[in-house]
Design goal:
Layout (H helix, E strand, L loop, with lengths): L16 H16 L6 H8 L3 H7 L3 H47 L1 H13 L4 H7 L5 H4 L5 H21 L5 H13 L2
Helix pairs in contact: 1-2, 1-4, 1-5, 2-3, 4-5, 4-6, 4-8, 4-9, 5-8
């Protein structure tokens, strides 16, 4: 005689759930700021049970680190993919200037999200290590020496921060002469 089955069948594993939670966390931060990020808000945005958030992430900082890492990696790939043909067509200064225009004009909402995350680390030491890896010199480094890449990184970060803080768009023609002084050494 066999025993009756009393256990409910387990639902299929959801391998994409962790990533959906991270994406939802990014949306919550983009729409409402870092202070609005709670496990409940993220679970609602991801349409997952609240317990899923605490299953995958130990605390809010753990969730933010994963969110920052995901957005940073996506951002770096996007910048590299955009920049490569621009540099081939316009040279380094022209390519970087076109990238600045793309980001500050057509991708401005994404830029605001990214700098919101970046600036949220000021009072959260646990996040600083992750955000320290998000540097614009990495974008320029394949095209020039380390010292020039670092100077370009500082300059680009300043331009992008100004765009966010003052809600200003920068066009390639506005920034290319400045970037050319750095890349040409004049």
């Amino acid at each position: 005689m066999s025993l009756p089955q009393t256990r409910a069948k387990r639902r299929p594993n959801d391998p994409a759930r962790r990533q959906r939670i991270i994406e939802a966390a990014a949306r919550v931060v983009a729409e409402h700021g870092v202070d609005a990020l709670t496990f409940r808000a993220v679970a609602d945005a991801a349409k997952v049970p609240l317990g899923s958030t605490t299953y995958y992430f130990a605390d809010k900082d753990d969730l933010l680190v994963s969110t920052i890492r995901t957005i940073r990696e996506r951002n770096e790939k996007s910048f590299h993919d955009l920049l490569q043909p621009l540099v081939a067509e316009h040279g380094l200064a022209g390519g970087l200037a076109a990238l600045v225009e793309e980001v500050t004009v057509r991708q401005h909402p994404q830029l605001i999200l990214e700098y919101g995350l970046y600036l949220s680390t000021l009072h959260r030491p646990a996040l600083r290590k992750e955000i320290a890896q998000w540097r614009m010199d990495a974008v320029a480094r394949p095209y020039c020496d380390d010292q020039t890449a670092r100077l370009l990184g500082f300059t680009l970060e300043g331009i992008l921060l100004q765009s966010v803080m003052e809600d200003v768009m920068f066009f390639a023609t506005d920034v290319e002469p400045m970037l050319a002084k750095i890349t040409d050494g004049k």
